[in-house]
Amino acid sequence: MPQTDVDFTERDGMVILAPAATASKPDRADQLLERLRGSAQKSLTTDEIMHLTRAYDDD
């Protein structure tokens, strides 16, 4: 499940994946991203976003 904390343990040569006993506390980056999630302008196209986030030359 997305955003689920898990623990990895090794037993008898096998790796076991299990839900973590306690959830980790979100760090500052997680809190910032959560606040920003869904705040983008819906009017931008994918090409416009790519142009803004990449160092393209306008030549």
DSSP summary: helix tally: 2
Helix content: 25-40%
Biggest sheet character:
2 strands, antiparallel
Beta strand count:
2
Counting helices, strands and paired strands, the structural category is: alpha+beta
Strand order of the largest sheet: 1-2
Q: Which term fits the overall shape? A: elongated
Task: Give the amount of beta strand, in percent.
Answer: 15-25%
Low-confidence stretches: none
Secondary-structure element string: EEHH
What is the rounded Rg?
20 Å
User: What is the mean pLDDT?
Assistant: 82
- What distance lies between the first and last C-alpha atoms, to the nearest angstrom? 45 Å
Structural notes for this entry:
With 59 residues, the protein is α+β, with helices and mostly antiparallel strands. The protein has a domain at 26-59. Helices cover 29% and strands 20% of the residues. It is built from two helices and two strands, in the order ββαα. It has helices at 28-36, 46-53; strands at residues 6-11, 14-19. The chain has a two-stranded antiparallel ribbon with strand order 1-2. A hairpin with a 2-residue loop joins β1 (6-11) and β2 (14-19). It is elongated and about 60 Å long. The termini are far apart. The mean pLDDT is 82.
